[in-house]
Amino acid sequence: MNTTFNLTSEFQTIFETTLTPRTFFAPGRINLIGEHTDYNGGHVFPAAISYGTYALAREREDQTFRFYSMNFPELGIIECTLSDLAYKEADNWANYPKGMLLFIEETGHEINQGADILYYGNIPNGAGLSSSASIELATGVLLNELYDLNLERIPMIRLGQKVENEYIGVNSGIMDQFAIGMGKKDHAILLDCQTLEFEYAPIVLDDHAIIIMNTNKQRSLAGSKYNERRSQCEQALSDLQQKLSITSLGELTPGEFEKNKHLINDKINQKRAKHAVYENARTLEALAKLTSGDLNGFGKLMNQSHLSLRDDYEVTGLELDTLVQAAWDHEGVIGARMTGAGFGGCAIAVVEKENVDHFKKNINEIYREKVGYDATFYIAAIGDGAKEITE
């Protein structure tokens, strides 16, 4: 409540108005298991978290959009008009809402006047908890409500992915937008990234907590090896398709992969494909473990996931490996793994609540000694998807 009130006065100051804006919120997300499976046609298992992006807006009389982020105050107000929504490097973070505007208009939904929009995100920048998809969905919900567009949620989620792929130029899957758009309090989502079939799974932690461990190593997806990993998997799939009639790696069981992996010519591509196939199997197993209340079994799957991301997919690095190894060695930890694309960003651990303070202190000491600076720790509450805040 306080956050909303403070943001309202901030909005009125920045945009020099006495009008009260409408307030929208889109969460960030963690992925509990199923990493780098989304664009390989497999399953993912994300959850929306209580950290995210607030967007406050009022319509204008003209066709100008003015964007301001409290996270980038040095950039000031960034303006564009409905007649010019082209990507501009100088517009920095504002390209995410501009992309949503452009693609919503292109689908035939009419927006005929501008708006002043203030953004504030409490997702750590560059942490890999999907701040960009959070901005996209906050914008999508805002535009939908402000202009009565009646845009269904799944098409809005697809537009968010389209912004990443075609407007920003990051070849990412649909998981982030889906988790943020469809999140449900105290539930994770098992999502088939091929068909978008999904089911909710209750997360019953009882005397445990999910701790997000931020490496504080800045990472940029567009500049990382993300696209390289994706093309390695595409090449592996292409090799397998010489014999198998499959459209994605996610269609293979581990057994089928082992029988046919010799078809993949390049040994590195073979490792990348192995991760995609085995990780998909772990994700399906994770649903069964959580549904039956087997938290320890789920923790073991988390650990296996990290080993695969470290050894076969090679996207972890010193910072993530240090955090995860320290977590594995700590009492009261059921499981730990990196979450997100890797190359920095965050890891998660399921920790006994009574051990949380001790855990944060000890893990950080080990991390600082090995890496040279502090990690940051957050308790992840699992919350709802993108929506208007009306209270």
What's the mean pLDDT score? 94
Note the total helix count: 11
Q: Give the helix proportion (percent range).
A: 40-55%
Shape: globular
Low-confidence stretches: none
Number of strands: 13
Strand % is: 15-25%
- Secondary-structure content class: alpha+beta
From the alpha carbons, calculate the radius of gyration and give it in angstroms: 21 Å
**Element-level helix/strand string:** HEEEEEHEHHHEEEHHHHHEEHEE
Q: Taking strands numbered 1, 2, ... along the chain, how are they ordered across the largest sheet?
A: 5-4-6-3-1-13
**What is the end-to-end distance?**
8 Å
**Largest sheet at a glance?**
6 strands, mixed
Structure in words:
There is one protein chain. With 391 residues, this protein is α+β, with helices and mostly antiparallel strands. Helices cover 40% and strands 21% of the residues. The protein has eleven helices and 13 strands. The chain has a six-stranded mixed beta sheet with strand order 5-4-6-3-1-13, with helices on both faces. Strand 4 and strand 5 form a beta hairpin. Helix 2 (95-106) crosses helix 4, helix 3 (131-146) crosses helix 5 and helix 6 (226-240) crosses helix 8 (267-291). The longest helix has 25 residues, at 267-291. The N and C termini lie close together (8 Å). The model has no long low-confidence stretch (mean pLDDT 94).
